[in-house]
Amino acid sequence: MENLERRLGEERLQQLLGLLDLTHDSIFVRDMNDVITYWNRGAEELYGWTKEEAVGQVSHRLVQTVCQVPREQISAQLLGTGRWEGELIQSKRGGTTVAVSTRWALQRDESGNPVAVLEATNDITERKHAEESLRRSEAYLAEAQRLSHVGSWAIDLATGGIIHASEELFRSWGLDQRGGINSLEAFRQLIHPEDRDRYLDAIQTAILKKRDVEVEYRVALPDSTIKHIHTVVNPVFTTTGNLAEIVGTSLDITERKSAEDALRDAQAELARVNRVATLGTLVVSIAHEVNQPLGAMATSTAACSRWLARHPPDLLRAEQALDRIRRDCKRASDVVARICGLVRRQPLQANPVNLNEAIHEVLALVRDEVQSNGVSLSTQLAHGLPRVRGDRVQLQQVILNLIVNAIEAVSAINSRPRELVIASRGDASRGVIIAVRDSGSGLEAADTDHLFDAFYTTKPDGIGMGLAISRSIIEAHGGGLWAVPNAPHGTVVQFLLPAEPVRTGDEAADSASFASR
Amino acid sequence: MGEEQSVIFVIDDDPSMRDALEDLLRSIDLDVRVFKSTQEFLASGRPDVPGCLVLDVRIPGQGGLNLQQALAASGIDLPIVFITGHGDIPMAVQAIKAGAIDFLTKPFRDQDLLDAIQAGVEQDRARRRDAGLMAELRKRLDTLTPRERQIMPLVASGQPNKQIAAELEVSEATVKLHRGQIMRKMQAKSLPELVRMADRLDCQPKASQSQPK
Question: Domain B143-203 falls in which CATH fold?
Answer without folding.
Answer: Arc Repressor Mutant, subunit A (1.10.10)
